[in-house]
Description:
The structure is a homodimer.
Chain A: H1 3-13, E1 17-21, H2 38-50, E2 56-59, H3 61-65, H4 68-85, E3 90-97, H5 101-114, E4 119-122, H6 128-135, E5 141-147, H7 153-156, E6 160-161, E7 164-165, H8 166-174, E8 183-187, H9 195-201, E9 207-209, H10 219-226, E10 233-237, H11 239-242, H12 250-272
Parallel strand pairs in A: 1-2, 1-10, 2-3, 3-4, 4-5, 5-8, 8-9, 9-10
Antiparallel strand pairs in A: 6-7
Amino acid sequence: MEIQKLVAQIKRKKSFLCVGLDTDLEKIPPHLLQEEDPIFSFNKAIIDATHEFCVAYKPNIAFYEAYGLDGWKSLEKTMAYLNDKYPEQFTIADAKRGDIGNTSTRYAKAFFETLNFDAITVAPYMGKDSVEPFTAFENKHTIVLALTSNEGAYDFQTKIVEGTELYKTVLRTTTTYTNADRLMYVVGATKASYLKEIREIVPNSFLLVPGVGAQGGSLEEVCQYGMTQEIGLLVNSSRGIIYASDSTDFASAAGAKAKALQQAMEAQLKMYL
Amino acid sequence: MEIQKLVAQIKRKKSFLCVGLDTDLEKIPPHLLQEEDPIFSFNKAIIDATHEFCVAYKPNIAFYEAYGLDGWKSLEKTMAYLNDKYPEQFTIADAKRGDIGNTSTRYAKAFFETLNFDAITVAPYMGKDSVEPFTAFENKHTIVLALTSNEGAYDFQTKIVEGTELYKTVLRTTTTYTNADRLMYVVGATKASYLKEIREIVPNSFLLVPGVGAQGGSLEEVCQYGMTQEIGLLVNSSRGIIYASDSTDFASAAGAKAKALQQAMEAQLKMYL
C-alpha cells in the first residue's frame, strides 16, 4: 500500500488506530472453541466489529506460530479475509524478524508476498544487510524496532553509544539505508516524552506506537510529541480491544472499545491538523 | 537435551559439526521437485547421509516460512523425522526471534514444544524480558545473537557502549539473566580472533559459529580461540554441505563434505583435548 493511501484512510476515518490481533485460545470466549477454526472465527468477528474505527491490523505472529500448522492456517485465512473484504486496511505482520541478506529476503517474501502484508516489524541488531532485503519491496513497509515499551528496553536500547542512546543510533543509521523512505519505527508509548527527540531524527517517518492503555502510555502525549503534518502515527491497542469481553458479546464490546479510541483520536486530530 | 548429552555425542563422534538445513526449492536437485514434499525429501536424504558426521541440525526457519503452510508442514515432518530416527541430534531452530514476555513464551512453545527443538536463536535487542521467557524451559537452550558474521554487524554490534563493544555488553548483561546457564551465543567465525575476548566473558558457554567456509572463517582459528574443556563449540555449515551437488548424487556429495569437516574437527579435537 502506498503511504498516501494510509494517510487518506486516516483522514477519512479520523483514526490512526491499529488493532493488534494477539489471538490466544486461552483468552477468547469459550463458546468459540467449538468452531472449526476458533482463531479465525474470533479474528473475523473482531475485524467486522472494529474495521470502521481503525486503519490497520497487526497480528502478532508468535500467537499463530504457537499453534503450528493450525495457527499458520488461521493466519492465512485472516489475511485472505482482510485483503478481500477490507483492502483499505493497512496490515502489519508483527514478526520482529531479522536475518542475513538472502534469508531476510525469504522472510520478506513470506510476509509481503505469500501472506500479502503491507508491513512487517524487524529487529535492527544485525544491521544494514538484514534490513535492506525488506526495504527492497516497493509499496511495502519495514518497521524497525527502535525503542520498545518493555522493561528490557533499558538493557541495550537506552545505553549510550558514541554519545547518544543506542535507539537513536538505530534511527540515524537506518535513515542512511537504501529505500529508507520505506522505513517506519516502533516507539513504545510508555516513553512518550522521548518522541520529541525521536522526531528530530526522523521528522516524517510513521511511528508504530504500542503500549497506549494497557502499558500505561498516554494518547495525548504521543500526539503532542509525535504527530506530523501527515499524522505519522499508528497507535496500537491489542488486549484492551480484543479481550474487552470474554462472553458472546465480545465483538460488540471490542467495537465499542475501538470506537472510544477512535473518538479520542478524532479529538486529537482536530487539535493538531 | 541436557548439555552433557551434547558433549558426550561430540566426544563420541569426534565432531562438533552442525548442518544448516537452509532448504531452498530453487537450489535443490531438480529431480526432487516431482516429489510430493520436495523440501522434506531433500532434508531426509541429507540427514541420512550426514548424521554420523554431525551432532546438530539447524533449519533456518525463514526458508520454511517462505513457502507458507507447505513450508511449515515440511518443517514439522523434518523435525518429526529427526526426533524419531536420530534423537541424539541436537536441533536448533534458527529463528532469531525476540518479543516481549508473554509473546516470547508463545515463540518458545512453538519451537520447544510444538516442534520439539532443543534450541532456538534469539535476538537480544529487546533485553531481559524478551530472552528469559525462552530460558524458562528446562533442558532447552537459548542461543543469543552476539556477534554475527555479516557486514551489517558493524552497524551496531561493534559500536562502543560504555567503553566496550555492544556485543560484549550483550554477553555480559545476558549472563546476569535468570537461567543464564541455558544460554548459548552466536559468534560469527569471520571474526575468530574476537573469540579470545569473548571467552573472557563467557568462558564455558557453547558458541554457535556460522560462517566457517562459505563466509571465510577458519576452523583452526575458531578452535584456537574458542574451544573449552567441554568443547563449547558448534560450528555450522549450510550451503557448503547441502548444495555440494545439484544432481542425483546430492546426498552422497553432502555426506562427503560433512565427513571432510568431521575429520578436520577430529584433528582439532586431538590437539586441544
